[in-house]
Structures are given as C-alpha cells and as structure tokens.
Amino acid sequence: MSALTELLALENADAFAARHIGPDAAQIAAMLGVVGAASLDDLIAQTVPESIRSNAGLKLPTALSEAAVLRQLRTLAQRNVMKKSLIGLGYHGTITPPVIQRNVLENPGWYTAYTPYQAEISQGRLEAILNFQTMIAELTGLEIANASLLDEATAAAEAVSMAHALHKAGSKVIAVAADVHPQTRAVIATRAWPLGWDLVDFHPGDIEAIAGAKPFAVVLNYPGSTGELRDLSAEIAAAKTAGALAIVCADLLALTILTPPGEMGADVVVGSAQRFGVPMGFGGPHAGYFATKDSFKRSMPGRLVGVSVDAAGRPAMRLALQTREQHIRREKATSNICTAQVLLAVMAGFYAAWHGPEGLKAIAKRVNLQARLLADAARQGGLTLRHDMFFDTLAIEAGAKSGALLQAGLEAGFNFRRIDATGIGIALDETVTRAELETLAGLLGGKLEAAPESIPAALRRGSAFCEAAVFNTHRSEHSMLRYLKRLEDKDVALNRSMIPLGSCTMKLNAAVEMAAITWPEFAEIHPFAPANQTEGFKVLIDELAALLAEVTGFAGVSLQPNSGAQGEYAGLLAIRAFHEARGEGHRNICLIPASAHGTNPASAAMAGYKVVVVACDKLGNVDVPDLEKKIAEHGPNLAALMITYPSTHGVFETSIRDICRAVHEAGGQVYMDGANMNAQVGLTSPANIGADVCHLNLHKTFCIPHGGGGPGVGPIGVAAHLLPHLPNHPLRADAGPATGYGPVAAGPFGSALILPIPYAYIRLMGPEGITRATKAAILNANYIAARLEGAYPILYRGENGRVAHECIVDCRGFGATSGVQVEDIAKRLADYGFHAPTMSWPVAGTLMIEPTESEDKAELDRFCDAMLCIADEIASIEDGAWPREDNPLKNAPHTAAEVMAETWTHPYSREQAAFALPYIAAQKYWPPVKRVDNVYGDRNLVCSCVPLEAYADAAE
Ligand SMILES: *Cc1c(COP(=O)(O)O)cnc(C)c1O
Fold it and tell me: Is the domain of 305 the same as that of 224?
C-alpha cells in the first residue's frame, strides 16, 4: 500500500455511516442467521420486488467526515450576512435564554421525544405544553389554546377554515383587513382557492365594508402590519353582526401590555410565539398559536393537552379530545394538522416561565419605549410617521429620502422594511442595544430625547396573566435548570431507549447534524432579509433540494411545506393546478386506500377534492379490482390517487406500477405519501415506481428530531410536468416558480433553520451509506419479526414472507384468552423502559414496530426480550396464575410510590412489577404516573396549568 493510499484508508476509518447504522458486520451476520437469509442483499432481494428496484445507484456526493461536514456548513453560514433585521412582519429578534438553549433546544432529552400519545411516559413535555397553552389563553384573553400550529399564517388559515365549518348561512367570503401581514393574506388566499372562497380586502376600520361583504370570517392584525395600533372592538362587533367569526392575528409580546383581543370580543386569536425566545431562523420553525372560545373547542385544529387523573386518582396530563384531532375525522376534517411545533412551543412556554409576567412586561415596555424614543427622533429629523399609535413598529413617511434611508440603514448594519415607494418600517425588539438605538436615531436625523405616549389609554392592558406558580417561581438559573431536568426525567426519549414507532421513523438524530441550527449566521436571519444577505441559506436550500430530487428521482423539490401533512396539501394543490392549466379543472375525485393515514383524506378535502375510498385486500394491499372499478366509475373526473409506499401495512406491493399506470391512463395523477421513504432510499424511488409527486418527512427519514410533536419539514418532489405548479411566495421571488399557486407556509422556505440537519445527514452518509441504512432498516424489522413471531402473529408479509422496514404484530387474540388488550401491552412496555410502538394503526388491536437502522442488535434484543417477557406474562394469565383483572399488564405502568408502598396486594411480586428482566435494574425508568384516564379528562376538560397547581397545593 502506498503511503497516500494508507492515509486515505486511515482518514476514512471512522466513517459516519457506521456510527449512524446500529448493527456492525458481526451483528448483521448473526441477525441474518436468525432471519434465515444468506446475505443482506439476499434479504433485500426477497423483500423489494425486482420489478421496482432501481439498480443505478444514487448519484450523491461521496460521504464526508463529521469534521468535514461541519467545515462545509461553516462555509455556508459565513455566506449569510449578519445585519440587525428590524423588518418586523411577524418576525423579530429575540434572546433565547441560554439556560433554555442548552437544556432544551440542544438537549436530546427534549428534542428526540415523540408526540405525547403515550401519556404516562410523556408527563414532562405534556406539562411544558400545558404551560404554553395557559400562557397563550391568558395573553390573548380567550378560554382555550391548543398545543401549537405551524406558523402565524397557517394558523390564520386554520382559523378561517374553522369559521367556515361553523358558519351556517353559506357565505363564501373572507374579509381581510388591508393591514394583515402580506404572507398571512397570501396563505389564506391559497387555502381559499380550491374551496371557491373569495377574499375581500377592506380598509382598516371600515365597518361598512365588513357589513357589505357578508363574510364568514373577518381577519384583523393587532397591531397592524406596519405597526398601527387601533381599537379593534368596532370591527369585531361588525364581524359578529355580519354573522362572521372575528379572527385576530396578534403579536404575543404586545399582548403583555395591550388590551387582549379576547377582551374586545374576538372569537379566535392566532399568531406566532417566535419572539418568545425562538430565533428567526430565516422563517422557522416557530410555534404558531391558536386560541379560541370554549364553545368552539370541538372544532379547533391541532392537538390539545388536558389534565385528567391516573388510575391512582392523581392528576395526570394527556392529549384531550382525541377525536378532535381533526385528521382522525378523515375527509370530514377541517384541518390536516398532525406534526405541529411542540419543541418550539415548549421553548416559548419556558421563556415565559423564566421571565414571568413582570419580566415579559418589562421587555415589552422597553421595546415600546425604544420605539417611542425613535419616533421622536424621526420627528426631530423632519420625517413624519404614518401613525402615531404603535407598540414597537414605526411606519416612517420618508418621501424622496426613503431609498437613501434604507441604504444608510444597511451601511450601519440594519435591515429596515420597505413598505412601499416612500414608506420605511422599523420594528424594535429586545436585542436592540442602547448604542444601536442611538445610531438609529442619528440615521433618522434626531437624538434620543423625548418619548411621547404611543398606546391609547383604552388599549392598555388591565388584566393579569401568567399568575400560576410555574411562571413565578424559577427566577434563579438553578431553579430553572432543575425544573427543566425534573420534567425531562419524566419522559422517555431516544436518549433513553429505542422508540419503535411504525410509520414515524425515530432514527438517530446525530449531534453533528444538530450543531449548525444554533449558529447565529443561520439562527438570526430574518425570512425577508434581502436575498444578497442570505446566499449561504440559498446555496444550502438549492443543494438540499437537488440531493432530495436525486433520492426521489424527481425533477424538482420545494422545501416550503413545514410538515408532512402540509406537503400532502401542497402536492395535491400542484396536481389541481396542473389539471386546471390543461382545462381539466373539473377533475375532482381523489382515490385513497382505506388503510391511508388520516392526513391523506384531510389534505384531499382541503385541496377541494371529493375522497373515494379504495378497499384493501386481506394482505393489506390495494384491492386492484376495486381500484379498477372506481377508476372506471369516475374516469373523466379522476384527479388523483394518494398511495403510501411501501404500504402502511409495511409491505412492498408488487402491483404498484400497474396501479400507477391505470391511474395515468384515466388522466389522473399519482400522489405518493413518503412517510415510508426509509424503506426506499437507494433501492427504489417514488419516480421509479410511477408517482408524479410525493412528500418526504425530513423529521422521519432524514434525521430532523421529532421534538415531542414537531418541528417537521415536508418537502415535495415533483415530476417535470408539475414544476410550474409548485408553491411560491409573494415576498421572495426565488422561493418557487412565478407560475406557482402561492404559499402554503409563512416562510418562503418553510422551516429553513433546520434544513442543515437533513443536509448534514445526506452528506455524511454518501450514496453507499444511505443505501446501506435502508438495507439495515429492513434487516432490523425482519429480525424483530423473526424473534417475535413465535409469540405474536405477524400480520402482513410480502410475497416471500418478508416485511419491509416495519412489522405489525397482532395482539387481538389475547383478549379472549386472557383479557389483555393491545393498550395493556403498550403500557406494560413502560415498566421495561420502552416507548410503545404505534398502537392500533393502521389496524386496530395491533402494534406496528419500526426499529430503524440506528438500533443495534443489543437494543433490538432488549426490546424483543421485553416483548417476549410480556408474552410470558400473558401466558401466566391464560394459565390462571394471575386473575384477568389483577396482573402486571392491567396494572401497568407501575410507579415507584406504588411499588415501594407499605402495602402490596397484588398476586404478583413487586419485583415482577418493576424489575421483570435483569437489565432493567441497570437503568430503571420509573413512570411518574399510573395509567391515565382518558374519559374522565374529556368529561371534565381542563387545559390550563392553574387547576393542576391547586391540586399540588392541596396535597402539601
Ligand atoms: C407521519 C405521517 C404523515 C403526516 O406527517 P406530519 O409531518 O405529521 O404532518 C402522513 N402520512 C403518514 C403515513 C405518516 O406516517
């Protein structure tokens, strides 16, 4: 070996792929033995039908080392220009408290958690979200707030949809105030298009226009987009008189010192929690918020955390009104929201806990005082203000000087907003220093002197908010640090054990992939900063889009959708636009297999389509004769088929190509749900299968952490004929084609800040590594199926008896013999330290297990041992050793207090309860609560932390 060859080999010795993929060569060999396959390639050949394999290999750049990828990202970061952006438009500088940045945003205990469907192992994040909901409801002056939405603009669109669902009189008109943020208006316009709703703009304050429009929804901004502060009471009253819902998009910081819209009668208040400690990040992710009246709670979009009780009668939290999670209602849903922005909502709630109501008010007053001082300086400089009442944003009438003022701002390091030919907007925020304020005053031709009032007396907030103890306790960093740790320790996240969630692909979120998201050159960029300041982002986005195009086989990719469901919606709109452009706008039928994820029919309904369900056969595949029948029935009206591949049952259907061909022959388009992309990467692709468009879940397949229920990114890939019909954005020309249908998200590039994560992943893995990951994912799933099949029937398999990247174990047989239901098994897994697999989806009474490639054999064995031990426990019940109603499964999970209590009345031992397998003692996870009662909590709905604290006080 030459010295240079040797050097190369040594340089590549620590390849990232081997760190990402759990099993090493020896483990793979052992697992193949259990599975009964001669080699990994043999197993793959038995699993993935030859007819759909793409054997060309991915044309991705060769793998980089961890150090090299960080260098690459640094180079990109340095191409972003750091200016202080005072642009406003719903995005503001904010200071992330370091205690929250380090212990939450950069802490896998928080960011690798799953959506809190398994309440008993999610009490920490449920409490954090409850804080968020409490804060939002109180700040907006409304009764109930949800656990977050995607961003302000989509939250406004969700509110409009809710208003339509509640409206009885048949109006199709949405009245939008002219001072609503332009991106919010544009997202509402996109939502309106397929449903035939009309947008009518009205001048702020014009109540006659509201009455004349006879709208079902009225949308207002508070303060207005250019900063104007006015009393909204008259407009809200006019909306109600007209029979519409009054929707107010409000600035959260302003609400700490302004009369909240709820007190003015607003029905819904939405907005962004970005400026509560979450960096701008070139547009996202941030928590959108949604608050409304109690009477509308059953129509609300998104998830809701509520307080209930556990089996011991103690308070415990869980997701409330599960049926209200809209997409479960399928095509009858008014929203498709699934993944939202939990991690960011959690951060915003902690920001409020850290500062408390007094601290928040101090920040707001300071920002307002800065704006007033600057307003006075502008007047000294001979400039006029377009409005004298404002919170933090000035609209300066600069006349002929506006160009020069913008330029002077840039040279001094500031981005201002160009409102129009002569207007300049300046929005202050908590990051602006005294020195910067002086510079700004100088630019406007004045000095910091006087500060005339800018908030009318009637709009000064009189009501209290955030009075609960959690917002008034953690003033020292130690207190906060320990509070965060206390909550974190209640939860099971990936830093504790594998999370075997079918369909949700909980793979490794490597530290190196996460590194760049807190670099200021990415984190502190405003989404509407000038394009010449954001080249680093643009190159990253273009390169990532190209990498994903290669992986999917498609001609182009839009990164704008900020969740998988939003990708479905964006992709279906591309199909709708395509049909309309060809004069086939009458096509309105969307075929969806019965096994589809609930977001599919919900998205189709939002895209204006009529959903026709296609049956599935006994093997879980699309029933091809039924599909052919429905195609024949709807032929000329067929718009699209939505299909998940491999199927939601975890099987590669061999007929997929024929299915796609049949749809195309009838003039329809094929939408592929890419949630199962982890089984395809490098082996086949959506384009190869015959799809026209698909979304990817970058928070499943491409390593963005799940965040406890968000953030996500749901880009869509499209074939060439759909390229002109991708989303675009009114404030950023290069965000999509000029021929596009408008935006589906507030940010031009969606959740841009987290795009370095999938970018790093793909560059680290390289074409061979990423393909090997797919193969390892398939091996891991087949290994689990092989280990469990003696105890649990495996429900679906492909033609050669193999499963794809996940397997469904059937638990329906235990009910008759032992009384054990699938939920008992799920809850019992918590006693073994595991998060349950996906429960009762896509088939009731089953568990869907997806191990991913990142789990090594040792962890898979720990999980399988737990499942087999539970099967033995079920056998003991069947044998009569334990009664059906008193056994380790029915009583699961077991808390420490219970196992350690003086009295123990159960027929099994305490050790069996808590330490059923030897490995458990080495790192015991103690569930903090017993099984949570869902019914009680829905009958007695409580969605704020105030009553919870009252209980704790009473217990003391
Ligand atoms: C996760 C998932 C979705 C929805 O994705 P979100 O990012 O949660 O909106 C859609 N379809 C399937 C099959 C999924 O697993």
Answer: yes
